[in-house]
Amino acid sequence: MDHYFRNALEEGLIKSATLPGGQSFFIDNIQYYEVTEAGMNLFKNRFHAFTDTLRLHDSLKVNDEMLTTSLAIMRDQLRTAMAQINRDPVQVMDNLASALNTLERLQQRREFALDVAEVFDIVSVFYLSEEEDPRIVDPVINRRKINHWIQHTELYPQFLRLQIDRFVPLNELTDPQNLGKLQSMNDDELIDLSIIQKKAVPFELSDETRALIGDRMSNLKHYQQLIDDMKSGRYPSHS
Q1: Any residues with CB less than 8 A from the CB of 223 and at least 6 apart, and which?
Q2: CA distance 179 to 193
Q3: Angle (nearest 5°) at CA 121 between 118 and 124
Q4: Digits of tens for pLDDT over the chain (239 positions)?
Q5: b/e map of 31-57 (b: 16 or more CB within 10 Å)?
Q6: Cα distance between residue 208 and residue 140, in whole Å
């Protein structure tokens, strides 16, 4: 348990979290917590990370995971293309074509400007685990927490029932047509990443980039299941 987390818990600034459905937020032996009314000043210290998350989605229209993965891929591919420009023009063209495709995929996401990942990104500020310092948002711990939640698609409809309408266009994110478009973009990205993954050696992708690709592909598959559940009506909308 984090030292600052223990202090906040003992002082009554945080408490065990309850989801909108009334059940305790307890997943895979991990209890999640929320800030109490007495701890609202504590939450203010996390507010900057929250506004940064909103700014990222509002301005870039893509979530941090996709942006980080795409930039890492393009960096490695362009670096490889520059190194091979005088000795393997065919491979250079393959690298450049793939990098351009990654850029176009980012542009497509920006133009659509909707992503179920935004819900997880925002909610992750409100709920924290024992390993977190409640005063700050550690991006590494936070990403690990989100990756865990994504595996439990039943959480998403619970998150939609939180009071986050002013931050996230929930009506648009539950619209069947928009969900279908998101699903199509996820499928396209999964195919692209699978191809890039298979060409990791000629593209000379770093171990870090390969790990990012693996995580992104895993999460995209979970998003697809989540969207399937929403489209099938298995889970009710937030309204």
Answers
A1: 116, 117, 150, 182, 186
A2: 21
A3: 145
A4: 888 889 989 999 999 999 988 889 999 999 999 988 887 877 776 777 777 777 767 776 788 889 999 999 999 999 999 999 888 999 999 999 999 999 999 999 989 988 888 889 889 988 999 999 888 888 888 889 999 999 998 899 889 888 887 778 888 888 999 999 999 999 999 999 999 999 999 999 999 999 999 999 999 999 999 999 888 876 655 44
A5: ebbbbbeebeebbeebeeebeebeebb
A6: 14
The ranges assigned to domains in the chain are: 3-232
